[in-house]
Amino acid sequence: MATNTFKMCSLLMASLFAACASVQLDDPDWYFWLPLYSFASYVNLMSCWLLSSRRLTAKISVIAFLLGFFLFVKVVVEDQVNGIAGFCSVDTRERVVREKIGSGLVLVSMALHLVESSIGKDNERQNRERSNASLHVQAGMVSLVCISYGLSLFFLLYHEEEMKF
Fold first, then answer.
1. By CB distance 3.0 to 4.6 Å, which of 4, 31, 34, 132 could disulfide with 24?
2. Angle between helix 30-46 and 54-82 (nearest 10)
3. What does pLDDT average to in each consecutive run of 10 residues of the chain (165 residues)?
4. pTM for the full model?
5. From the CB of residue 96, how many other CB atoms can be counted at a distance below 10 Å?
6. Strand, helix or coil at 2?
7. CA–CA separation, 96 vs 94, rounded Å?
């Protein structure tokens, strides 16, 4: 069962992923990135409501996770082959770094949602383990919101004019 903190963090991530999806139409490979961010926004938004189809949301979160993994690997390979920025670079002026960070954020978000959805009511006798796992997922979601909004704010304040495509 999702806590209020998890729901609030999901709402914040849904808005961030929706904003990311809205700026993808001028990208040359928008057909990859628009569905990725749209699916991630949908999953985060639906986790806030109890009336949503949990089965459909779980399937879309798996699709978003796999698409995010594919795009993360694609961007890392592109970066390594062309020697653009390096694997650990956070120079958000580079397109591959922004795409690597975006797909990584989707991966972490979908992983947290998949873990949260697997902490169901089926294991009633394991209340202690379930509550520990729920606390870890909640802490992960709070960390994800802080990191993603912090990176976005840093990018908008310092690097937006210097972007490289």
1. 34
2. 140
3. 84 93 87 94 86 79 94 91 80 83 94 85 59 85 93 78 59
4. 0.85
5. 21
6. coil
7. 6
